[in-house]
Amino acid sequence: MFGNKAQMAGMMKKVKKMQDDMAKMQEELKRKTTEVTAGGGAIRLVMNGEKQITELKIDPAVLEAQDAEMLEDLVTAAVNEAGRKIDDMASQEVNRITGGMGLPPGMF
């Protein structure tokens, strides 16, 4: 029985470290950014780890085309790609911290 208590204490210590590491990772992720382009560079977008757009540049040539639907599609594509990159970045960090334990989403 003593061995089980020691194992449980060791496991709880590991879980606490993992929680601390996850909190630190979440804070670091807030400061990270990703940059994407769409339409061959016509749209350039920067998004932070909280999925907030911090920069959006639109090539004036796209505006001159007076094609609102095309512009909407390009911005949508850029936002979606940036969101995927942020998700991938977060997922890689979680896997690094958890050692790929395959924990359920939202556990940390």
Automatic annotation (TrEMBL):
It comes from the Bacteria. GO terms for molecular function: DNA binding. SUPFAM superfamilies: YbaB-like (SSF82607). Its main location: cytoplasm. Belongs to the YbaB/EbfC family. Homodimer. Binds to DNA and alters its conformation. May be involved in regulation of gene expression, nucleoid organization and DNA protection. This is Nucleoid-associated protein HNR45_000714. It comes from Negativicoccus succinicivorans. The lineage of its organism: Bacteria, Bacillati, Bacillota, Negativicutes, Veillonellales.
